Amino acid sequence: MDLDEAIRQRRSIRKYKADAPIPREDIEAIIEAGSWAPSSTNIQPWRFILVEDRETIASMAKAVYDKFQAVSKEALGKGEKRLAAFFRFLRSYGSFFADAPLVIVACAKPYENPVLKMPMATVVQKAKELEHMDVDVKPLVIDTVQKSVAMAVQNMLLKAQSLGYGTCVMDAPIAIEGTVREMLDIEDDLELVMVIPMGVPESTKVEAPERLAVEEVMRYHQA
Ligand SMILES: Cc1cc2nc3c(=O)[nH]c(=O)nc-3n(C[C@H](O)[C@H](O)[C@H](O)COP(=O)(O)O)c2cc1C
User: Fold this and answer.
1) Which residues contact ligand 1 via a Cβ below 6 A?
2) 83-106 residue pLDDT tens
3) Which residue ranges form the domains of the chain, and what is each CATH number?
4) Which atom belonging to ligand 1 lies closest to the Cα atom of 150?
């Protein structure tokens, strides 16, 4: 598949064909595409938990739905109608993946720079104490892992698209991070970044949400 075609035709797919599992060789090709992404100092902080078990996937989706339902009810009880509506929306926005044949949980390993040899929290703290410090080190040592994971995920979405699979990047399920962590036995040192259900799309006719025009999202700097 041509790159431009993959970029333009990729859509967030929220319904998958039943009984169309993804072969492991395709799963591994998708992960490999992710691993060719750039990462800060080539730390490759991405780690992927692959969930194929239908019951586990359905329970994860139910847990997300139930959580947002409870929060919405509580908000409504307190007279917060708009907030309640938002959380009602999040019920399905965060849980549509119950029937997906595969869910990938993309995680980030904390930054471990061999040069620094100290925990990143310490780097940030020590840097703050430097008299001439007007450099914000957080983007360099803390946020950089999530940025790197996002780059890998985009590669994976395009690879999946080229192999005929539909995907959807999600962060709503991260709202119940503790539950997901427990259900999947995720290592303590990994930070959950995104959840990506994947499968053969039930329909290929998914409308593309509009994009801002190129002129609206760019400007040439005038020297
Ligand atoms: C960081 C991020 C988080 C997202 N979270 C969700 C989500 O929780 N649930 C969902 O259904 N879609 C989610 N999406 C998908 C967006 O809704 C979708 O990308 C957007 O509407 C554009 O549609 P398209 O992907 O088909 O081009 C997320 C996308 C991104 C980049």
Assistant:
1) 11-12, 14, 93-94, 168-172, 209
2) 999 999 999 999 999 999 999 999
3) 3-201 (3.40.109.10)
4) 1
